[in-house]
Amino acid sequence: MQRDFRGLNFDWITIALFLLLVGFGWLNIMSASHSGDITSYFDMNHPYGKQSVFIIFTFGLIILILALDAKFYERFASIIYFISILSLLGLFLFGKNVNGALGWYSIGGMTLQPSEFAKFATSLALAKYISDLQTNMKTFKDQIKAAGIIVLPAVLILLQNDAGSTVVYAAFFFVFYREGLQQIYLVIAIFLILLAVLALKFNVVVAVLVAAALIFGHHFFGQRKRPQIIQPIAVLLACVAVSFGIKYFYNNILQFHQKDRISIWLRLESDPDKLHEMKQTILYNLNESEKAISSGGLTGKGFLQGTRTTGKFVPEQHTDYIFSTVGEEWGFLGSALVVLLFVALLLRILYLAELQKSQFSRVYGYCVASLLFFHFLINIGMVMGLIPTIGIPLPFFSYGGSALWAFTILLFIFVKLDSNRINEW
Amino acid sequence: MRKLLLLSTIAFVGLVFIARLFYLQVYNEDPYSLLDDNAIRKVYDYPKRGYIYDRNGKLLVANQPSYDVMFIPREVKPLDTLELCNLLKITKEDFINFYDKAYRYSPRLPSVFIPQLSRMEYAVLQEKIRKYEGFYIQKRSLRDYQTTIGANVLGDIGEVNNYIIENDPYYKSGDLIGKQGVELSYEEVLRGVKGIKFTQKDRFNRDIGAYKDGIYDTLPEPGKDITITIDSELQEYGELLMRHKHGGIIAIEPSSGEIIAMVSAPSYNPNLLVGRQRSRNFTKLYNDTIAKPLFDRSLKAQYPPGSPFKVLSALIGLQEKVVTTQDQFTCRHGYYLGNRRLTGCHSHASPLSMNQGIAQSCNAYFVNVYRRIIDKYPKPAEGMDVWSNHVKSFGLGDYLGYDLKIGNKGRIPDGDFYDKWYGANRWSSTYNISNAIGQGEVETTPIQLANMVAAISNRGFYYTPHIIKNIEGEKIDEKYTTPNYTTIDKENFEPVVQGMFDVYNGGTAYSLRVPGIDICGKTGTAENFMRIDGKRTQLTDHSIFVAFAPKDNPKIAIAVFVENGYWGSRFAGRIASLMIEKYIKGEVTMTSMENWILTHSLENEYAKPYSGKEFGINRQSALQVIDKITKDTVVNPLSTRTSPFK
């Protein structure tokens, strides 16, 4: 087999997909951030120029990651996790506040965002813990311990007021489920989302009625021999409590902008004047982004020809809203291609993960797929108005050194682990 | 199973995203158009509007620059407000007002500070404007009328209304468009095609350079100059003669259908509807419901034609062979059916043949002819239809098809008309004999009547009247150079033309002869009614006159309508003779006739429905004599009229 070539048996499909996404992303960052003539691709006055430099550094990182021994990552996982947690803690002392979140270190002219790097560190630690021979993910005790590994960085990031990055940690649910989490948790998760949407969109009564119908339907028409009474009533009471809790959480705990985003997503605002005002303020980004995407049509307006992109109508277009540039300039064909590239990359990673012989590699691969999928889901969903606004970058696409490097490290550690599969006996 | 959760979720999300993209970009998307993209600013470059010349090459309408003082509120730096206010002749309160209003509209976009400065005001400001940062001057083009006449012919331009903007994508808010007259008819020729520049703008609406380096930009195409058929000297003379009278004059060149003069009185100075004062003046003109200066009486006013219509009865009689030129009819001061007098008549010799019937304008003669025409056919409706078709072949009873956008159909009844009125066959020719003498149900507009005269003078055909002579050398529409034939044979015209000639030689227009010109004419005096306080009241008769000259190879055919002008030869006849002399000789020798017209006013007559004074029907009443008016007498319809209610 070709894979026998020592050192070169990387999965080239994954690498090709990665390169396509980074390259196409860079072109779109150029569109979204250039002003007038493009004199140099390394023009450090513009984001696209900086991104060029970031990409070059990325190749250095890739070489470094692939050069290290595959065992290194498993062995040092705990230490990497520890350093990552330290760097998050350090933010409380030395952090720089950007857009209300205390998420950046400023070193010289550069800024680094440790929360981005915490993702792969957490993945490594989680993979290490789960793959430990003494860990049984079917037991509640080990589930709690594993959850702790995730919750720690998530809470730190939340305390730094970066709720968007915190949400991403929910992605690890897929890993837990794959490694033995009971099915009831999946049912509970779906049930909770349903309750939340119903309670907010309509009211608690509707939510509880629907819950009751589902619960009693399950208990009476399920294949049980003796229908129980006490258990469903207890579940229902829990539903009532949870519904009220969600309402309370929405009304009293969420910050105003978060509330507004959910209210828009669920179309809770019916007063047209208020809605019009929202379109000018908090809906502005989404509104402009959807308009830019729509105006692309089937084939788009062409590279560097997007009128709304050139006019900078979509704020933050080169970072979180980069997909609207794709939509406007490359049209349906280009945007659908990007979606397909992401799906292909994710499915490829999943496929490789299932092939792994070591549990560490498999769990880590699952972590990579889950994290990338969550970013893909939230970012593109948000830009197209399918998901409430949550400001997280589109992997490999969005402008920004920290995010690009963190995602590259995340992905290429897996590429390295995968290349070592043949030696895992 | 556990392996499938993430896999299927990924596949599902991918599909949802592609579906959403399809919905946003393909299904839900109108075809992209640069013109509708609000991220692109469209700046229009307006071409020069075409000039308008009269038939002799005299410039009537040109353009003049006007200057808007513009400013961008955010760019205004502290300045000497007092000096600027003095320069612009505004108060400091105005200044603050304008500024605040513009700032509220947009601090980043240019607003008009003071619109349409004149050349003089601009000259003073020009050298100082650089001192005021944020202010600049924008040039606009307005119409510049080189004349004070022909407001109804030339028309005016004004801003497009919303209806046009919605229905014609060429026009954008604020564009100017022809509103009346030639400006309206030849809008597309005169306006040219505006150029367009696409500029990319950012989300603050600031310009950030040409879109795609201007590859889609277009240059403006200048409007074409046009020459109209009006003889401005004759037009001016006609307007002078019609001062203090209401009515219209239409003069047509029979050999081409060109409209030489088109006077509607009272009129106004076209310069009133230019620039800043346009809307104020327009409102004043619009609100004058007695004089109605905006109502073009020469094209739109529908009057009973009166006696000039009799010549058609004669022509149809000859064509239908129900009468010969020798047949004589008796007139007993009217037409009698048994012992009932159906219509009256004035004193003249009796019996009369056709020639004198026309010359003396005998009512009884034409009623006899009319009845013979209708009664020739077994059913009255059939006869009526035959008569109606003959009349309509002279361009009456329907829109003439001339190139001005306003007009009226007039009314020529047919068999159906009376069948509906009285019931099928429940009427006979005696029911509507007034049609014979141009009263009853017959109504025409002055231009239709002039065209009818042109057809008679051509002995059987006419060219559709038109106002356009040429468009920078282009040929005019073929429809204006193709003759329209009437249903009357050529040989039947001679006796009628001779009759009209004799109107001037011993007939009703004997006093109106012009030395050295053979004029054929026909007087007309039309009864007319108005509802005053709910009561149908007969007003003073209209004075009508039609004529053409010379008798052979006619150069001019004319119809004159003077509202409430007592009788045909009194006002309309005099005006027609003066116009003909002026046009053919180039000067007026009949100074006493001219003096009479210029010193007699009908304003009192027009006030009667409101003042309650008696109308003198069919008898001479005292005329209002005024100081002689001249070309330079200012008659401003906008000056406060003395109220008749005092």
TrEMBL record, chain A:
UniProt topology in membrane: Multi-pass membrane protein
Stretches that traverse the bilayer: 12-31, 52-70, 76-94, 146-172, 184-217, 229-250, 330-351, 363-390, 396-415
Keyword terms, alphabetized: Cell shape, Membrane, Transmembrane, Transmembrane helix
GO biological process: cell division; regulation of cell shape
Pfam family, one: FTSW_RODA_SPOVE
Gene Ontology MF, one: lipid-linked peptidoglycan transporter activity
Location(s), subcellular: Membrane
GO cellular-component term (any): cell division site
Protein's UniProt name: Cell wall polymerase
UniProtKB/TrEMBL annotation, chain B:
Localization in the cell: Cell membrane; Membrane
Biological process terms in GO annotation: cell wall organization; peptidoglycan biosynthetic process; proteolysis; regulation of cell shape
Chief location of this protein within or outside the cell: membrane
GO annotation, cellular component aspect: plasma membrane
Domain Penicillin-binding protein dimerisation: 46-208
Membrane topology reported for the UniProt record: Single-pass membrane protein
Name of protein: Penicillin-binding protein 2
Biological source species: Gelidibacter gilvus
